[in-house]
Known about the structure:
alpha/beta, Rossmann fold, 2 domains, three-stranded parallel beta sheet, 11 helices
Amino acid sequence: MKLETADGAARSVRVLVVDDFEPWRDFVSKTLRDEPELQIIATAHDGLEGVRQAQELQPDLILLDIGLPTLNGIEAARRIRDVAPNSRILFTTENRSWDIVQAALSTGATGYLVKSSAGRELLPAVDAVLRGKQFVSADLKHHALDADANRRDKVAALFPLRNVDCHELKLYPDDSAFVDGISRSIETSLEKGIATVIIATESHRTDLLRKLRADDVNVEAAVERRLLTLLDAADSISTFTVDAATEENRAIDMPDIIVAAVRTAKERHLHVAVG
C-alpha cells in the first residue's frame, strides 16, 4: 500500500484520523501500526480541526467519521476537497442509512466503512481507496437493495396499475418545439382514450391549449371526461416535494385530480408531460 514520489521512489502512506471516539482512534492506531506502509501523522477530534489539519498536513488518506462535533463529517469532507484536493477520504461510521452513504460519497470520498465491520474490512477498505477504487461495506449492500425496493413500492402505491410502461425523456430546443411536440402527444393519447396529465408553466399551458384548439381538439370535453388534466408546475412541485429530514418514511400524497385521471384511463398507461 505504498505510494510513489515524483521520481518513482516508494514512500509510506500518511494518514489523518478524524474521530471524536477515543476507543476507535486507539483501534485504528493499533491496526495500522501493524502495517509498515501506513503512518498515522495526526488525529483530530472534530470536523473543523480535521479540515484544518488536512489543509496543513496534506495527508494521503483521511479516515473521517460522520457524527463529528462542531462540523459533521460530510460537510468537513466538502471543505477538505477544497483545501486538500489530493487527499483520499474513507468515511468510517456506524450510520447505515443508504441516503447518508450516497451523500457521503457525493463529496468525492471513495470509501464508506461501517465501524462494526472494521475488524475484517478496515485494511481492505484502505487498500481499495488508495488504489482509487470505491469501497462500501458489504453489510450495506442489502440496505441499498432495500432502499431501491422501497422507492419502487412508493411508485407502485402512487400508480396502482399493471404493466406500466416507461417512456423516454424528450428534450426540445425551444418553447415552440416543446408546444408542438407535447400537443402531438396529447392528441395521440386522446385519440386512444389514454388519460394525459400535463404539468407546465402558465405560459406553456396557454400555448398548448391554443395549439390544441387550432388542431380542432375539443379541449373542454377532454377535460370534462378527465382525459386531459392541466396542472401548474409551481404548485405541483410544492405538492410532490417531501422533506426528507422530517418525512423520510411518509408516502407521497398525490393530488386527487391525478388519481382521478389515472382511474379514468381506458388503457393501462399514464402519460405525464412536464414543461
